[in-house]
Amino acid sequence: MRDLSRPGRSPVHTTNAMAATSHPLATQAAIQILQKGGNAMDAAIAACAVQCVVEPESTGIGGDCFCLYAPEGSADIIAFNGSGRAPAAASVSALAAKGVTEIERHSPHAVTIPGAIDAWSRLQADHGRLQLGDVLAAAIDYAENGFPVSSRVHADFSAQVDFLSGDPISASIYLANGDAPEVGAVHRLPLLANTLRAIAGGGRDEFYNGWIARDIVEHLQSLGGLHTMEDFTGAQGEYVSPISSEFRDRVIHQCPPNGQGVIALLLLNMMKQLDIDPGGPLTADRIHLEIEACRLAYSARNSYVGDPAFGDVPVDALLSDAYAKELVAAIDPDRATVPPADVALPRHRDTVYITVVDKDRNACSFINTIFFPFGSGITAPTSGVLLQNRGQGFTLEEGHPNCIAPGKRPLHTIIPAMAVRDGRADMSFGVMGGQYQAFGHMQFLTRHFDFGLDLQQAMDLPRYMADPFTGVVDLENAIGDDIRAELVRRGHDIATPAMPIGGSQAIAIDWRSNVLTGASDPRKDGCAIGY
After folding, report:
1. DSSP 3-state percent helix, strand, coil across the chain (nearest 5)
2. Alpha carbon of 353 to those of 20, 127, 180, 296, 366: distances in Å?
3. Is residue 412 in some structural domain?
4. Is 493 a member of any domain?
5. pLDDT per position as a tens digit, 188-214
6. Which listed site, 69, 110, 489, 505, has its alpha carbon 20 to 30 Å from 417?
7. What are the φ/ψ torsions at residue 71 (nearest 5 degrees)?
8. What is the DSSP letter of 79?
9. Does one domain contain both 212 and 152?
């Protein structure tokens, strides 16, 4: 339990149902859906749709989606991969013919076919109780009538003013007289309201087969993109078999590659080999070990993880105890490794994570992304759909696991998660923050299970991570100077990140007491609410 005399927030407890998101309006929308008779899937999609409006820098319907779902708390976890694919005409040679030597952020070639609306429609039809129009109603209202800009959203907008200014359509939609809208200012997205209303009435086909797809395709083609209507009409996600590993009497479930969930499990397997530091999770020794584990695990990610339909991803080998022991044995407890060579993959990101548990104990772990803040920065002119830049997850290096190819899915950083204990879902959780997410899963779980912090404390504690490309270690500024000095002595290159590292939400289920406990990261504007 936290020291109540210090600033902070406590976990939220309830017995009926709960939702946790990174924006209060989204959490409220989820709770309202639950109170109207919807279940956890309905509520998660409703919350995500609201966040696509009120946090447009973090997520959108022009992005992708992954989901883990535990029906009535079952240990038989359902996984859905809603990540989009490269256009059928996309290849190294096709881009070379256009003079492309690098996939840049504000480029049509960074835009993969959005998978989010297909995922929402499939998941809601298969597992929800309400109609899609009911689920999207709150988002439509906020887009049409406006929403007040919150503090974190304002900060995110402010950091992207110059970028948005480079695209006249995006600037006209998201900026206010050329600048970020102020905190508390009411912002409206009428084009997006029309598009959401069309999807509410016509479902996924309205997005992929109708005027919305034509608007997107024509705009991307005008910018030199290779996208076609056939790419959109053929777009669909898929149910996949989750992967898992045991950690502290629980089975931790992740979506399989093309996501990096396998690396979260690898890091947990590595942590099982280490002693729990009696000094706590923020000693120089513990931070050093985690940083070194991060470098080794992410080096494996960059070497092996990609779309399994286009090459073998050695999941079993990556998750073997022998491999975890081999990596841990390579860690020098007193010296940092040489920073890795830069790799042709992007570094930045933006995402929202949502978790909902309903009265029947259906548990939904749901994540939606446009990758960088405001994605590619390209907005379709009539539909108002802001498009992701997930195509930057590809390289143009022949033979690389993430070399671009027709219909291929890029390496994805977003990873919803679910913990199972004694044959039932024990906790639905996730971490935002792009590259940080796999490492963040490990940090959150070890702080909670190994060091005894409650859900909220485990999120609140200062974070750090080694950049998997440069080797620089970002330490949040709450970590003291003495620890920083010791890490520098051990050879680490230390920096303070411009923004807090990531975000997170979690809901734990206590089956004996029938109590739900939730938490939401203070680095965002959100909250957990139960009723």
Report:
1. 40, 20, 40
2. 9, 19, 24, 26, 6
3. no
4. yes
5. 999 999 999 999 999 999 999 999 999
6. 110
7. -65, 120
8. E
9. yes
How does residue 342 score in pLDDT terms, banded at 50, 70 and 90? very low
- Count CB-CB contacts under 10 A for residue 129: 17
pLDDT band (50, 70, 90) for residue 275: confident
Euclidean distance between CA atoms 319 and 172, whole angstroms? 48
For residue 195, give its domain range.
26-239+351-393
Judge whether 385 and 116 are in contact, CB under 8 Å: no
> For 358-370, how does the pLDDT look when each residue is reduced to its tens digit (9 = 90+)?
999 999 999 999 9
Indicate left, alpha or beta for 407 from its phi (over 0: left) and psi (-120 to 50: alpha).
left
Per DSSP, helices labelled H in 223-343 are 229-233, 261-271, 284-304, 315-318, 321-329
Q: Which residues are catalytic?
A: 351
CA count, 13 A, side-chain hemisphere, 182: 3
Give the pLDDT score at 470. 84
- Please tell me whether residues 177 and 97 are part of one structural domain: yes
Mean pLDDT of the chain: 95
110 contact partners, CB below 8 Å, separation of at least 6? 103, 104, 376, 388, 389, 390, 391, 392
In a domain, 94, yes or no: yes
Task: Identify residue 72 by its one-letter amino acid code.
Answer: E
Q: Report d(CA 157, CA 144) in Å as an integer.
A: 20
Q: Is the dihedral of CA 280, 496, 474, 419 positive or negative?
A: positive
Cα-Cα-Cα-Cα dihedral sign, residues 277, 279, 281, 284 = negative
Number of structural domains the chain divides into: 2
| pLDDT recorded at residue 345 | 47
**What confidence category does residue 67 fall into, taking pLDDT thresholds of 50, 70 and 90?**
very high
Helix (H), strand (E) at residue 309: none
Strand order in the sheet with 64-70: 238-240, 78-82, 64-70, 363-371, 350-357, 18-21, 527-530
Shared-domain flag, residues 370 and 453: no
Nearest to 428 by CA among 361, 356, 360, 367: 356
C-alpha distances out from residue 102 to 98, 163, 249, Å: 11, 18, 45
- Tell me the residue type at 48: C
Report the distance separating Cα 102 and Cα 380, nearest Å.
Answer: 23
Contact 402, 391 (CB under 8 A): no
Q: How far is CA 103 from CA 62, 162, 423, in A?
A: 18, 20, 45
Q: Would residue 408 count as lying in a domain?
A: no
Q: Residues 165, 147: contact at Cβ < 8 Å?
A: no
Quick count: other Cβ atoms within 10 Å of Cβ 488? 13
Tell me the CATH number at 282.
1.10.246.130
